[in-house]
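Hi Y.,

Following your request, here is the sequence exactly as I used it, all 244 residues.
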Amino acid sequence: MATMAYASSSAMFSTIHNPMSSHISTRVSKAPFLGFPLSSPTKFSFTSRPSMAPKQKEQRFLTKCQNLPVVPLDQRWMFEGSEPGCPDIWNKTWYPKASDHVNTEKQWYVVDATDKILGRLASTIAIFIRGKDLVTYTPSADMGAFVIVVNAEKVAVSGKKRTQKLYRRHSGRPGGMKVETFDQLQQRIPERIIEHAVRGMLPKGPLGRRLFTHLKVYKGPTHPHEAQKPIDLPLRDKRIHKQL
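Below is the corresponding structure, written out as tokens. Let me know if you'd prefer a different format.
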């Protein structure tokens, strides 16, 4: 009787003081992500330790490149020259090195500015100076060519820009603003007109200042760059020529 009374009192104590024991055991038994199996969920108690499952041996998987044709035969040319270790040749961004844009190896162009519209001619010159016509064009690198402009005094403008287009410069001192029209500047320094137009279409900063040195503007039909063997600048836009 004493034993039964003790057993019943202990069961009553566990029921009274652990009202959530059955709920906890049910919740734990339904959670397989705990990492250990429960042998008897109904007899779970906080004092007993769960039995840990024996650790399984780690399996190591070795991956190696196979010599099987994993791509169609008509596309195997894209993988010629690749190393046998199967390198990731398609996720390597190409960037030009110093040997890819040596100034002594760049192309020289020459263009006659006679009866050429100023803005359209300047935009074409800026494209070739920046190297946008090349497949190796890189915005942050000097990839462009050299451009020679002759007969700068014969460049044309449309509309009333000869008298209405103004060029301003400042001496840096108070009241030192100088203003002159297109016609006045063309008579005084015709080279400055084309230089001003092309400079505004180049990047602002060290790269733009270095690219601006690729432009050579001269008054008259001659220039001192015959040794560079310049070729004619391709003008594909017919609107560059002044409409008579």
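The chain is about 25% helix and 10% strand.

Thanks again,
Q.
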